[in-house]
Amino acid sequence: MHNGKRKKAYEEVAEAIRSRVFSGQLVQDQQLPPERELAEEFGVSRVVIREAIRTLELAGILRVQKGAGGGTFVCHDLDKPLVTSLENLLAGGDISLNDLFEMRLILEPPAAALAAERSRPQDLGPLREILEQAEQSLRNSRALRNNNLEFHRRLVALAGNPLLSVLCETVLSILVSSLRGKLNRRTSQTVHRFHHQIFQALLAGQADQARKLTIDDLETLRDLYHRMGVEVAQDQASRKAS
């Protein structure tokens, strides 16, 4: 006897659409048929279709675009639920910016070490490219900052672990959003110097050095934020007392 709870109609529809996405029947950016056609196909009401679409939108599998040229499209923003959860925790005071920095320190230095171990010289082209772009943007605060962020994304990607990339990107995106408007060119120029050293460590296959330099890079960045009056070093005790 099956004791499992029977799925609701919108859950069954959502599961069917999800299966089509992951099986490749529906591909990235493909537009789904209108609600009316989906309702007829699945034999349910348009209300059920809307609930199923909403469920998949929250899961980062579909995106709903309003206005002219709008509709429901396939996307692969699968880290969206995780990002939303962390944003809510940050907004509610359950985690701090310091917690996010600590997560970067937990995730990125080991990723740099793996990148040094696993990457061949020819794999480092994208990292060299972003360093060259940064060199040309040393006087452009916004461009340099974006190049520095992209360096970290590409560095983690070289570790060859997609889950590690998703976790790092999630933490990074929330920090970037939270610290928008609080950066300056001097900060970006300071951490950019570490990136050249990290690149050389990767080129030489020096895993321990790559790990150490990435730690130094992130710790320096956190210290610079702190000097600018951005609170990223609040300890657990003081947070609980507040």
Please give the CATH class of the largest domain: Mainly Alpha
> Which structural class best describes the helix and strand composition?
mainly alpha
Beta content:
under 5%
- What is the terminal-to-terminal distance? 53 Å
Specify the CATH architecture of the largest domain.
Up-down Bundle
Radius of gyration: 22 Å
What's the CATH topology name of the largest domain? Four Helix Bundle (Hemerythrin (Met), subunit A)
User: Quick one: biggest sheet?
Assistant: 2 strands, antiparallel
Number of domains: 2
The poorly predicted ranges are: 233-242
Strand order of the largest sheet: 1-2
Helix content: 55-70%
Which geometry do the CA atoms define? elongated
Tally of helical segments: 11
Helices and strands in order:
Layout: H1 9-23, H2 35-42, H3 46-58, E1 62-65, E2 71-74, H4 80-91, H5 97-118, H6 125-135, H7 141-157, H8 162-178, H9 185-203, H10 207-227, H11 236-241
Antiparallel strand pairs: 1-2
Helix pairs in contact: 1-3, 2-3, 4-8, 5-7, 5-8, 5-9, 5-10, 6-7, 6-9, 7-8, 7-9, 9-10
Notes on the protein architecture:
- It is a single chain.
- The chain is mainly α and 242 residues long.
- The chain folds into two domains: 9-74, Arc Repressor Mutant, subunit A, CATH 1.10.10; 80-241, GntR ligand-binding domain-like (Four Helix Bundle (Hemerythrin (Met), subunit A), Up-down Bundle).
- Helices cover 67% and strands 3% of the residues.
- The chain has helices at residues 9-23, 35-42, 46-58, 80-91, 97-118, 125-135, 141-157, 162-178, 185-203, 207-227, 236-241, and strands at residues 62-65, 71-74.
- Strands 1-2 form a two-stranded antiparallel ribbon.
- Helix 7 packs parallel to helix 9.
- The chain starts with 8 loop residues before the first helix and ends with a helix.
